[in-house]
């Protein structure tokens, strides 16, 4: 069963990799990837930071470094997370090669074959894939438009003793939903009471376009065993491969040992360049610009879906992040829709692979961060037309079928 | 038993981490780390390459990239490995975050809990640690001054069916020994005949200071399942975290899936900067300079050991790489010697942690690449004096003991 699950997520991952490869062709208007807008990368500031570091400290910038990460960068993360509601000392921070590596290290340090991991359904595919490589048993917890349902989580906890609860509480991938404060508190309380580790994956937390900020689950109850993962991929640039894990010192030591056997340490040059950048760069002003840019794109996408998709379509209304989640009407299969859409040179990711089991085949994920509003409108017009055509065809088919039957 | 082994290698790894932390203090003359000489990093060329890439292709250099790696860098590796005796197409290359990640991905893709991995004794510690995190059973194969002994390997293969044979055939870590051609051929033949995967870890292969180059094991018999790992850490700079795996396409696909769940991909900027650098930089001239520099340091270390250590000391005479392996006379424990040496502000790594079992406590590893010849001479003089003092003490102790007994 575990091997089957493993194979399944591998197949899912390969399927998505293939979709992404095809859809990233320049002639395709793609909403498939989770790509930030390249025009918003602070390329000049990063170029200056790299040049400065390579001129002033070439030795340490190019040499092996500590597994835990570059001390000033750990200190910066600790300080910022403290301000965001997760009080942390630099010793509670491990610098990772993107937050994906944080997921992998937690899997490596915590999961033994056969252990149960509770996940949202749908959930971030590469996390499911990662837990499967450690031969975890994935059990889903029901979600609604506010994220993981607490009663469902409590039911799952009565049914099994999980090793880990994994969730993306803020602007979830793939749905874009956000867990409200009372559910965050409930999860922190459950983690503390049951002694169950929670992995709070938060790559999008800083990308809020409306509504008020919510505190990380990891900061709510100090004794709750919550590991918080963050990333510079969505705020600076993913090509740097820089993320971080924040947890109690003992957990950070365990993750550090796991990381040492994994890749020794995260790139010294990338860490030092970003630490140097953060000394002078107005990170908050940069985030404000990003929020304006992406907020407009989110609005454009929500309006375009409303305008272009056939009646009966349902979709999430995220307050931040990168994704909107759509549910097609009339039982349209999103994989079939993708085939039609590719003929119109527009792409997305079908929702089914994001489910560890019992997929909702009518669902699909749309990314809005990577295209300007006019292209979003154009893409949604084409996609909506494809969906409307499929819907007409299905109804006609039903009609014919009833005709034949009658 | 496996958990014990795991815990053991973790303890060993922590011990070495602590030693390295203490010994890298500026006041300590350290021969402990495996650090390249920072003065030989091509910092200016790398600075130009980073600046060029960030000016001419900031989008792709800072964006997510393919898990397999940047195509021109894969092509460069394939071309170079073909010239070095391992014919490979770009599709047979996966770019990794240093060759340490190559070891980890092979562990993740190939090793199931309880699988046996055959290793040299002593062997590269972080590889042992890595296999242990996948709950492998480590079995040692006897080595001599030419590396892994073929009769011992054949005996081990009769006793168990290993999942993997791991070795560093060229300028081994920690011993500096090199496997001769006939043993390489024998191992390739054994891999092909038994269908047992071989992991050929080759971070030092380009750093040869005397003698003729030997072909990679992976290039000798096309159908032998040999995975070759290489690195830019010792030839350009470790802080970039760039390495590569070369294998048949099917294996590369499996490693790529494992990598996707691990860190999505290796840093785009680092890959593109190095690919750009290699377009114009005279890599072979750079290697010649490195070989001259390190060859002098190796000679200095061999001469200093000869001059400064007490009679009865034995040591390897490597033809390349970064390390010399020393065996102390008279039963001196290298960990006790380290305590004395630290008082004289000189450091090394005791040999015991490099053994998965039955350690040789009189052994120690010396790195020669990180210090110029006068400091090597000074360090070996201090270390030799410590060893001589320990030896006198032990003999005096023996004398007193016999006196009491008599």
Secondary structure blueprint with pairings:
Two copies of one chain form a homodimer.
Chain A: H1 2-23, E1 29-30, H2 43-56, H3 58-62, H4 71-83, E2 93-96, H5 98-110, E3 116-120, H6 125-133, E4 137-141, E5 143-144, E6 147-148, H7 150-159, E7 164-167, H8 181-194, E8 197-201, E9 226-231, E10 243-246, H9 249-263, H10 268-280, H11 283-308, E11 314-315, E12 323-327, H12 334-343, E13 346-347, E14 349-350, E15 363-367, H13 373-405
Parallel strand pairs in A: 1-13, 3-4, 3-7, 7-8, 8-9
Antiparallel strand pairs in A: 2-10, 5-6, 9-10, 11-12, 12-15, 14-15
Give a brief description.
Two copies of one chain form a homodimer. The first copy, chain A, is α/β, with parallel strands linked by helices.
Give structural attributes.
homodimer, 406 residues, alpha/beta, seven-stranded mixed beta sheet, four-stranded antiparallel beta sheet, 13 helices, globular
């Amino acid at each position: 069963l575990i091997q089957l699950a493993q194979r399944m997520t591998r197949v899912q991952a390969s399927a998505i990799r293939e979709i992404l490869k095809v859809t990233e062709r320049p002639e395709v208007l793609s909403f498939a990837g989770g790509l930030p807008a390249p025009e918003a990368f602070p390329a000049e500031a990063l170029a200056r930071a790299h040049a400065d570091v390579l001129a002033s400290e070439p030795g340490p910038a190019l040499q092996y470094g500590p597994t835990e990460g570059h001390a000033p960068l750990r200190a910066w993360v600790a300080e910022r997370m403290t301000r965001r509601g997760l009080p942390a000392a630099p010793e509670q921070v491990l610098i990772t090669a993107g937050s994906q590596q944080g997921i992998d290290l937690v899997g490596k340090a915590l999961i033994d074959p056969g252990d149960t991991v509770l996940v949202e359904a749908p959930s971030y595919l590469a996390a499911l894939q990662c837990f499967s490589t450690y031969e975890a048993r994935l059990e889903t917890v029901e979600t609604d438009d506010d994220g993981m349902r607490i009663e469902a989580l409590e039911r799952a906890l009565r049914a099994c003793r999980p090793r880990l609860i994994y969730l993306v509480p803020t602007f979830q991938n793939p749905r874009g939903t956000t867990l409200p404060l009372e559910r965050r508190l409930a999860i922190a309380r459950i983690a503390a009471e049951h002694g169950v580790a929670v992995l709070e994956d938060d790559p999008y937390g800083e990308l809020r376009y409306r509504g008020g900020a919510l505190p990380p689950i990891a900061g709510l109850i100090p004794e709750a065993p919550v590991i918080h993962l963050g990333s510079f991929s969505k705020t600076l640039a993913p090509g740097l491969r820089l993320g971080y894990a924040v947890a109690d010192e003992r957990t950070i030591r365990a993750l550090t040992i796991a990381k040492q056997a994994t890749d020794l340490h995260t790139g010294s040059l990338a860490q030092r360049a970003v630490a140097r950048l953060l000394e002078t760069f107005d990170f908050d002003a940069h985030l404000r610009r990003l929020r304006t840019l992406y907020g407009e794109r989110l609005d454009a996408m929500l309006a375009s879906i409303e305008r272009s998709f056939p009646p009966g379509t349902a979709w999430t209304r995220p307050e931040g992040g990168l994704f909107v989640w759509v549910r097609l009407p009339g039982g349209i299969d999103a994989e079939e829709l993708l085939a039609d859409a590719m003929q119109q040179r527009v792409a997305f990711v079908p929702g089914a692979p994001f489910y560890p089991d019992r997929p909702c085949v009518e669902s699909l994920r749309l990314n809005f961060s990577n295209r300007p509003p006019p292209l979003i409108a154009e893409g949604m017009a084409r996609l909506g037309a494809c969906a409307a055509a499929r819907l007409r065809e299905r109804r006609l088919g039903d009609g014919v079928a009833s005709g034949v039957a009658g």
